[in-house]
């Protein structure tokens, strides 16, 4: 616990103007002067000697100008990722290969995104698996995190929604909160319970099936009740959520027709396909 705090203090001090940097070097014990983190930040400060930039824990001076004018250095970005994510060189290189947009980001940008995620309760392991989060520009990620904060949920589960634009995300949050009436949970929690899947998985599916959250929850419940009545499993429904776009009468009618053909298990495609397909 003490080591990260000391490291953060060192980072903050090293990023201050040069006179204070010299005092810090004199005050540091010899073993800390040789610490790789100290050496790296000291070198990094030299690169930014004309720009006053502090990390997420401090007030940032001229941050917009810095992002606009400073050309990102891949070497510094790689070192930054290794520091905050505790990844090896091989793991870090794979992260960059999978998320090449990170090469366009500055150290300050990545640190800002990282600490905003940590402050929002997102686990480091989740960030490592979703390193694209660190590639958000300026304060876009912070705006998105503030948007989902109103749901008072585990943000680890809502990560798929952070791929949405700010406008799309705001609509998703609105749909999730609305139309719940007597229900104890919000719409995404209720649907995850009804469909017997994780909230994270359902969030991924709602990004693909954007219509789902727009349907009133009472309608979805009635449609699910009909499908379950005909023994359509949640596993099959999750693979074909398009069936929930159809009316209750249509779903029941198709289920009856399909059963009349002698098939014991109703398939979701039978609800969507033309009638001639069922008649074959």
TrEMBL record:
<dbReference type="GO" id="GO:0005759">
    <property type="term" value="C:mitochondrial matrix"/>
</dbReference>
<dbReference type="GO" id="GO:0003676">
    <property type="term" value="F:nucleic acid binding"/>
</dbReference>
<keyword id="KW-0809">Transit peptide</keyword>
<comment type="similarity">
    <text>Belongs to the mTERF family.</text>
</comment>
<dbReference type="InterPro" id="IPR003690">
    <property type="entry name" value="MTERF"/>
</dbReference>
<protein>
    <submittedName>
        <fullName>Mitochondrial transcription termination factor</fullName>
    </submittedName>
</protein>
<dbReference type="GO" id="GO:0006393">
    <property type="term" value="P:termination of mitochondrial transcription"/>
</dbReference>
<dbReference type="InterPro" id="IPR038538">
    <property type="entry name" value="MTERF_sf"/>
</dbReference>
């Amino acid at each position: 616990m003490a080591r990260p705090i000391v490291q953060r203090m060192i980072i903050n001090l090293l990023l201050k103007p040069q006179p204070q940097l010299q005092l810090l070097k004199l005050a540091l014990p010899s073993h800390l002067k040789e610490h790789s983190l100290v050496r790296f930040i000291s070198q990094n400060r030299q690169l930014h000697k004309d720009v006053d930039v502090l990390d997420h824990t401090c007030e940032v001076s001229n941050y917009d100008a810095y992002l606009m004018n400073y050309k990102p250095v891949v070497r510094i970005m790689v070192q930054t990722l290794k520091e905050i994510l505790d990844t090896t060189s091989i793991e870090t290189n794979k992260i960059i290969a999978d998320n090449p947009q990170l090469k366009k980001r500055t150290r300050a940008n990545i640190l800002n995104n990282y600490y905003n995620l940590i402050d929002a309760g997102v686990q480091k392991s989740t960030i490592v698996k979703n390193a694209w989060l660190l590639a958000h520009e300026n304060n876009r990620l912070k705006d998105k995190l503030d948007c989902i904060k109103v749901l008072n949920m585990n943000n680890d589960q809502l990560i798929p929604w952070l791929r949405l634009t700010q406008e799309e995300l705001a609509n998703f949050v609105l749909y999730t909160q609305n139309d719940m009436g007597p229900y104890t949970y919000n719409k995404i929690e209720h649907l995850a319970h009804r469909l017997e899947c994780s909230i994270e998985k359902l969030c991924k599916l709602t990004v693909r099936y954007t219509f789902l959250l727009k349907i009133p929850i009472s309608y979805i419940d009635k449609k699910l009740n009909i499908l379950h009545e005909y023994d359509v499993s949640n596993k099959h429904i999750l693979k074909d959520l398009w069936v929930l776009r159809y009316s209750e009468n249509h779903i029941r009618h198709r289920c009856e027709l399909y059963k009349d053909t002698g098939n014991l298990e109703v398939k979701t495609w039978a609800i969507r396909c033309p009638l001639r397909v069922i008649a074959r």
